[in-house]
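dumping this here so i dont lose it again. seq + smiles for zinc ion
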Amino acid sequence: MREILLNLIKLQDLDLKIKKINQTLETEPEILSNIKEKLTEAQKELEDAKNILAEKEKVKKDAEWELEDTEARIKKSKQKMMEVKTNKEYQALLVEIEELKKIASEWEEKIIIALDEIEEAKKVVAEKEEKVKELEKRLIEAQKRLEISFTNLKKELLDLRKKREEMVKYIPKEILQRYDFIRQHRNGQAVVAVNDGVCEGCHMHIPPQNYNELLRVDKLMTCPSCQRIIYWKGLLEIKNNEEK
Ligand SMILES: [Zn+2]
């Protein structure tokens, strides 16, 4: 019985390792989807920033057209001044030119403001571009890392499964079935140690009578609370000392 129990402990160890690797293989891609999500977000922000920049550039362009137009009108009015016959007409043109000059200076101001805003918008675009680039780089790196670690983990998994196949040969079939049944119902942990009378699976006390029986290691016992297969923790220490 002692040998069977020790083999069960080893089997549990293997199964926990296998479980952990399987979990990693399933959950690791979350890192990727996380980066991808951030990248999509950053790409959208970049798109928005580019749209804002384009808007500001259009505002500037429009203002430049308006300014050009106003200046042309000023020039025309000045030419007309040469041809006027009466003082009244001359005065009217003066007023018109003054008005046009005011309008022109307003457009000039708008161009200056637009230039400032364009500069700001360009900075934002550059920032967002940097962010997108960085995330793209991170994604590629994460993919590479994942590929390497997955290859290693799969190799390890194969190795562990081989060891498991070997190990189960030394465990009677009905005990193995019981072990597998408990494992499925107890979150992968079917064999647990009892330390100082406490089950390490459910942290409940084992009745003293059972504990004394457990120390004898002459039969397979289960925890009265969680039904897991239990062993006395000192058993491993004795075994380790024997091996030394
Ligand atoms: Zn228990």
